[in-house]
Amino acid sequence: MKKKQLWIWSLFVLMMMFVIAGCSSEGSGADGDSGDDNASENNTQDTLVFGRGADSTSLDPATETDGETFYVTQQIYDTLIQYKPGTTELEPALAEDWESSDDGTEFTLTLREGVSFHDGTEFTADAVVANFERWMQSEDFIYYGSMFGGYGDDEDNIIENVEATGDYEVMFSLRAPSAPFLKNLAMSPFAIASPNSFDTLEEDPVGTGPFTLESWSRNDSITLNKNEDYWEDGKPHLHSLIFQVIPDNSSRLTALQNGEIDLMDGVNPSDQSQIENDDNLKTFMRPPLNVAYMPMNNEVEPFDDPVVRQAVNHAINKEALIEGFYEGNAEPAKNMLPPTVNGYNDDVEGYEFDPEQAIELLEDADYAEGELTIDLWTMDNPRPYMPAPQKIAESIQNDLSDVGIEANIQTLDWSTYLENAQNGEMPTFLIGWIGDNGDADNFLYTLLGTGSGNNYSFYSNEEVDSVLQEAQAETDEDKRADLYQEAQELINEDAPTVPLVHYESIMAGSNTLDGYTPAPTGSERFTDVKFTE
After folding, report:
1. Mind naming one GO cellular-component term on file for this protein (predicted)?
2. Which of 164, 246, 425, 437 is 20 to 30 Å apart from 48, CA to CA?
3. Cα separation of 184 and 111, whole Å?
4. What was the pLDDT predicted at 369?
């Protein structure tokens, strides 16, 4: 009996050896390859940890305006049209093709077939219509009003109707021609979400994008996983993306040097040479499609007086800011529009640093030296256009003190900061704007048009509005440029803000990172990103 049991046991062991041998040879090619290529591929890193200064405010891009939100939502959702990597040139996304009528008031988009939302429902023209109807119905969707002029049946709403003209075809009927219309469709806020998820998008986003939400630990990290059913063949390369909050720039760099993160934004300009001399790291430069600026609430004292606003413009030493905090990677701003955008007016004189002129203007506004006290607000985390907000605020505080303005620096967390900015609760503060589509309209109308949700200075000038609206409807790019140059002359005279700098921001990452291209719009997709061995 014992011999029989031993024989059975020996037979079992022998069979298991054959099974194991068979498993180990699985994956060998027909030419007898050992399968080492597969093994090395499996050993390649497939999770990227991105270090950033602050958390997203929500995961519904249609309700937000901040880059920290768009960093994440760009991975979860797709837009109808998207930008080619590193540019603001258009290429197909959920729409494979598009055409417009001769008069520029109708746009017909042919949609991609065989695409599903993360919840399994099919992407169709009806879903596109549902998204636009949602955005049209409420001023909560700030970007919609900013880019398309108004809401609902309002005559200011450039979109008169959105209609599904087939299962995979949608037609936009406009009340007037809109030159930036297609560029607007590619912007992050106009990502297409599953209509079944509209009520829960802030916490539970459902798009068609290359990644899906795994988890969100507020003010700590957001983890995304690869969408295995993504419509773009072979993409994404990464299995997971982790957005890790590390508020301090220097701490973030230390985490990169220690291998705790793989990519970071908000590099201190003074650290650039250190990174470039580290064989394990490399830098990336984000094109300067931005402006750092200081809005002044034009509706409240003392900034309701343009003479005071002009005085503040003369008081601030922008060259000192660039030398002290940007290490030469910025240029002083005299317009709210960056020089890289068509329509920039280089003939605008701007406001030279002139403390004596500032003092004279304040006296003209009946503010003797030392009589004016203001609160100057700044964010508590670095931004891509402002690497050291607290120190920059202190420098501006000193400049204002030199002309007799006492500025008390106040700080808020990023989410509350944005909310207060939109509500006009901070008379003057530091902020910035990164262009969404490379068009002048996205700076001048978005930031300074009457009623725009991003007009933090609450500036209103009927003549400026008229010129900007004319430029929106003009399809001749040379004529549009002339109109934007005219608008900048008018805006400069009113001085609603203090344009500070245009900054070519620095990013840093592991030297094994491949396929990463910073977007001039400030938020890029990680679809092409992978690691080399």
Report:
1. periplasmic space
2. 437
3. 17
4. 77
